[in-house]
C-alpha cells in the first residue's frame, strides 16, 4: 500500500529523520514528505495548498510540543477549515505520557490515533492497516 504525500509537523530533527527512515523503508509508504518545524508554518502552507486547489497530504504526523504554535493550537485552527476530515487524516506522534493528552486528542474527530514516539515499524504497519481498512470502507 502506498500513500503519495505525508506531512510531518515536528521541531525535533532527530525524530523527523527517524520518521522519514520508517516511512521510506522498503519503499512501502510515500513519495513526498513535507516537514514543518511548528504548527504555524504547516498551517500557512496547508492553507496555501487549499487556496490553489491542490490536494492536502493524505497523512499528517503531528507533534504536540513545539515553539510558535503547538499541536493543539494547530488542530484548533486546522479544524476550522470546512470539510477538512474528508481531505486528510492526522496522527499525533508525541513523547507525552500524560493521559490527559491522549484523552484530549479524542476530542478531535480528525485525529485518527495517538502514537507514542518513536514511530516504529510495528506501529507503522498497524497504521497502514488502519488506513487500508478505511479506504476499503469508503469504496465498499
Automatic annotation (TrEMBL):
<keyword id="KW-0597">Phosphoprotein</keyword>
<dbReference type="GO" id="GO:0000160">
    <property type="term" value="P:phosphorelay signal transduction system"/>
</dbReference>
<dbReference type="InterPro" id="IPR001789">
    <property type="entry name" value="Sig_transdc_resp-reg_receiver"/>
</dbReference>
<feature type="domain" description="Response regulatory">
    <location>
        <begin position="5"/>
        <end position="132"/>
    </location>
</feature>
<feature type="modified residue" description="4-aspartylphosphate">
    <location>
        <position position="63"/>
    </location>
</feature>
<dbReference type="InterPro" id="IPR011006">
    <property type="entry name" value="CheY-like_superfamily"/>
</dbReference>
<protein>
    <submittedName>
        <fullName>Transcriptional regulator</fullName>
    </submittedName>
</protein>
<dbReference type="InterPro" id="IPR052893">
    <property type="entry name" value="TCS_response_regulator"/>
</dbReference>
<dbReference type="Pfam" id="PF00072">
    <property type="entry name" value="Response_reg"/>
</dbReference>
